[in-house]
Amino acid sequence: MSATVVGSISTTPALTPFSSRRTTFAANSTSTNFPSTPLSFNLLFFKLTHSASSQRISTSHGFKRFSPFMEWQDCTVKMEIDVPISVAYSCYSDREAIPKWMPFISSVKILPDKPDLSRWSLKYKAFGRDIEFSWLALTIGICYSCYITFLQPIPNQKIHWRSMEGLPNRGAVRFYPRGPSSCVVELTVSYEVPQLLSPVASALQPFLEGLLQRGLERFATFAKSYT
To answer: Where does the record place the Coenzyme Q-binding protein COQ10 START domain (predicted)?
Structure first.
């Protein structure tokens, strides 16, 4: 079985509009004719049309060659707090008060109509530049016994969040009892390193761990006076 090529190919295919370069294939089980054009021209035509078609498909699906972000990094710090676990949990649940003790958080605003969502702003001067980001965070809770995600934290156990837009990040605050009047607060933050900070990516993790540790130290003082 062979195929007969009907039509012609321009000698300058790169300058011919894609819509005018067409080839019609007619199957003929008894024909012994071969393409009248040289094989090199047919291969070139296939590459040109295949390349143009692939480019249109990638564009139509919204694929991007480059991303403004790079790898994820994780930071975990913890500290024993001299307040009951219920007080520590209530204090940390007050999201709009977080800028009072977290060094690099400038503001947190809970959406009036959606209390599980909050708008966060980060402003800090580091590595010789002014760093400023914002994101919309969803506060959620996880029940480990039933593996179900809820739209509320687990009282006195865990507060979990993830960003919905803006700077990609997620994290959790866990509370462990140490007695009737003390507990351990463990804070884990995972974030995608912005392209702006990629030159200092290796130094960013220990730097942020230091900021988070300072934040917990200030949180310990703030929680003692929290009402």
So the answer is: 81-219
